[in-house]
């Protein structure tokens, strides 16, 4: 009875408002004329407006006409079914959302660590306006470009767990502020069981924002799938919860998907500094990639690729992998392709899996230079992982490797031997999905999508970077008869890519490490590889932690690196003799 009374009261109230709006908008002018009251309709509306909301129709002119359900300027209503039954909920435009009230209760107090909760400087984040100005980092050609007028609308899915309210609010506001209103069908916030339900619930008062809350921690993948399943638009846009969209970020992405539904497209991801929240434009010469440890990294385009783009620097960039936090995809294609692997937990490896799946199953991945979105890059995860972050990442990564990488998965296990000990669960449904979609082998992916990734030769014992702490063995750009040195590891191959062969050569392309003089302190040089040259024979010793020259029994040493190169010295426990290949194929 109580619920029925509430429903009747709500509908009666809405009926009164509807009649008032009809009179206010001029639809009842004929009736009003008979009473001589046509001039007083606006005052009549204000008299019955119970919350005295101010007129919000002072926008910058980029807003389209409201739907027929929208009440007078500044106010809207929607019916929601909650645990208490039907209730009426007023919505406000983002410009009228009370940032101070929303953020104020969760601000960092004096003496507290501003990095403790979010692993970025929350004090600096909380100082910023929800609609702060950021620099337009697009290429000049993008700023002059015209986009199609018939683009499809999108549902923006943002998942979060204990996100700083100021960062989450800026993400939502930037989407609404920087997007043509008719292209945003809705913003779906999926609260992955945050400690405070109001982190998301209060944002549900903003127009176009819907909030879904998990009743337990589900992680990024399952939360995104829940948001995607609830989405009403034909195109999905996934964003992280600490982003800021730049000018006309959305149109270039939607245009590429509208032209080909099998494209999965990502913006250039600008950097929001985690310490001071300065917005910095990122290079447009980067693509997503990975090493055999299957950790995502940014690769610079090759010189040939950069030269080919000089005539059209804003052309889409084919990328072997996406970072995973920000991308746009046709909803039905997302479903056909198998959504996400729902057995992956929390975070990590999902970008690897979806990138392999898109490419191997007939789609493509692109970075769109005319689309820019800023992202707060952190050095640590702010949330907990059941079993530890390393175990969760290894489990997720193993699932991707076992399903999509065929025999090449062995290079991953060589790079990360400990991963073999992490159970990865049942993958039968994902293997069946691969078969159903008639997906290509991983060899095709390496040859056609990521030829830049060097595949170890069958003659290699060890491969990749030769690491010593944070430094790596580096050619320093030298060629034949040049010395070698150490340089900070950059994980980009190039001058830091080496192989130890079964013939005991340490090779960089067709050059080998050569001991010119077999006495302690002798410099190492790069010389052309010769099959039977004893000066070029090396072996790993002490658990693959050192490189010993076979002919002299001296060890590779970096103590003289600052003086012009590496040398061989009497083997010792010194840290300057500790070397480890990133990929050991014989454990």
From TrEMBL:
Pathway: Protein modification; protein glycosylation
Glycoprotein among keywords: yes
Ricin B lectin domain ranges (all copies): 457-582
Catalysed conversion reaction: L-seryl-[protein] + UDP-N-acetyl-alpha-D-galactosamine = a 3-O-[N-acetyl-alpha-D-galactosaminyl]-L-seryl-[protein] + UDP + H(+); L-threonyl-[protein] + UDP-N-acetyl-alpha-D-galactosamine = a 3-O-[N-acetyl-alpha-D-galactosaminyl]-L-threonyl-[protein] + UDP + H(+)
InterPro entries membership: GalNAc-T, Glyco_trans_2-like, Nucleotide-diphossugar_trans, Ricin_B-like_lectins, Ricin_B_lectin
Cofactor(s) demanded: Mn(2+)
Subcellular location: Golgi apparatus membrane; Golgi apparatus, Golgi stack membrane; Secreted
EC number per UniProt: 2.4.1.-
One Pfam entry name: Glycos_transf_2
Top-rank lineage group of the source organism: Eukaryota
Bilayer topology annotation: Single-pass type II membrane protein
Family according to the record: Belongs to the glycosyltransferase 2 family. GalNAc-T subfamily.
PANTHER family from the UniProt entry: N-ACETYLGALACTOSAMINYLTRANSFERASE, POLYPEPTIDE N-ACETYLGALACTOSAMINYLTRANSFERASE 2
Function: Catalyzes the initial reaction in O-linked oligosaccharide biosynthesis, the transfer of an N-acetyl-D-galactosamine residue to a serine or threonine residue on the protein receptor. Has a broad spectrum of substrates for peptides such as EA2, Muc5AC, Muc1a, Muc1b. Probably involved in O-linked glycosylation of the immunoglobulin A1 (IgA1) hinge region. Involved in O-linked glycosylation of APOC-III, ANGPTL3 and PLTP. It participates in the regulation of HDL-C metabolism.
Protein's name according to its UniProt entry: Polypeptide N-acetylgalactosaminyltransferase
Organism: Equus caballus
